[in-house]
Predict the structure.
Amino acid sequence: MAEQATSIQRIGVIGSGSWGTALAFIASWHETADTPPVQWWVRREDTRRHLIQTGHNPHYIKGLSLNMDRLKPSTDLQAVIDASDVLILAVPSAHLDTVLHSGLHGLQDKVFLSAVKGLVTSEHHVPARYLHKILGVPYDQIGLISGPSHAEEVARTQHTYLTLATLHEEMARALAQQLSNQWLHIQCTNDVFGIELAAAMKNIYAVAAGVAHGLGLGDNFISVLVSNALSETNRFLDAVNDTPRDVSSSPYLGDLLVTAYSPHSRNRTLGNMVGKGYSIKGALMEMRMVAEGVRSSLGIHTINQKFGVSMPIADAVYRILHEEVSPAIEMQILTQRIH
């Protein structure tokens, strides 16, 4: 493990979308005389200039004021990597393989904290496996941060409860201490793979909840749908990674609930639009934001070909999103399969 992993001083954030902006805000919250500024990789030069001039992201969470004395935005990813000990990944899963390309160096010496809620590459890796298998980062230098957390509420410093998962207890405690504050509460666990998969799956079920809402099926049905979704998640996680876990806790159930019910949820919004008659392509174009549930539904479906877990809700979402089966037909079938 990297020597600095238990006493992190320099943090870098990779990604400037809504969640990346919120995480940059979190990472730069503490200000002491000996705390170095947070390095922040942003994709576009106009974004970097706007941040420096105004302290606001021109594209995401525009009302959030950022302390630019504590943030150093850059379009040079290698420079951000070189100047950081721990790198927080906050890019859409579809773009992670492009962003962390093979031309970068020094990745194996860094601690990675993934905030990517989806599956990576055509092989459908969880981010931790991708970082290890493709980029050669040791597993004990990889963690993830997850839990019920909308960027918009983080920006308002509303109480937020996250879970930091790593295989190294001392590293987890150090990172949690580095990021926690009076409104951000972080607990630690070692269920890296379970939480990564649950984070991908909750987006699938949020699409299902949105479809049901768009079709006007009502809160009674949606509540049972979400309850069954948690059972599906538990069955799948036990089959893929048999580790003791309590799926009723916040990184599993909490994240599922906030994603399935909140109007901030991109995946619920996508499902709602599809339920109202939009095509998948039309809904995504109008949203102009990434909905991870599309990619995750394909990945989880592909992985489950090996395990054969009964997952009627996830299967229905896969058919709606990737086989263009009627949402009304799939939801009608689910009324007879869930209880």
